[in-house]
Amino acid sequence: AWYIEELTAVLQTSKPTVYRHINKLKALDLLEEVGGVADGKGRKGYRLRYGNLARAWDFTEANAQNALKRYRETVNHLQELVEKKGSELPAPKVAARGRGTAR
């Protein structure tokens, strides 16, 4: 596991910059937090998921593709409902423009 202090030293950058990148990688599910109990200090460490970056990215990409597929299915289903029920819905009301109305 890598600790923030080690990353700041190796990358020669500030803690806020390292945390910003760590948080981005965690949001993409490429990194996981590791408890630092073994080092006796209780620090949080970070390591790549699945052993390497390419494998971690493959899982992240597959999850994103599955999510997009489910969204597409939902959109298609909603579109079918709108088309089926569309003729039964009243026409939308158009607001009349009067004095003082923004254009």
In the CATH hierarchy, the architecture is Orthogonal Bundle
CATH topology: Arc Repressor Mutant, subunit A
Main sheet record: 3 strands, antiparallel
- Count of extended strands: 3
Return Rg in Å.
25 Å
Mean pLDDT: 87
Coiled coil: 61-88
Protein name: Transcription regulator
Keywords: Coiled coil
Organism: mine drainage metagenome
How would you explain this protein's 3D organization?
The chain is α+β, with helices and mostly antiparallel strands and 103 residues long. It has one domain (2-87): Arc Repressor Mutant, subunit A (Orthogonal Bundle). 52% of the residues lie in helices and 14% in strands. The protein has a 3-stranded antiparallel beta sheet. Strand 2 and strand 3 form a beta hairpin. Helix 1 packs across helix 2 (15-27).
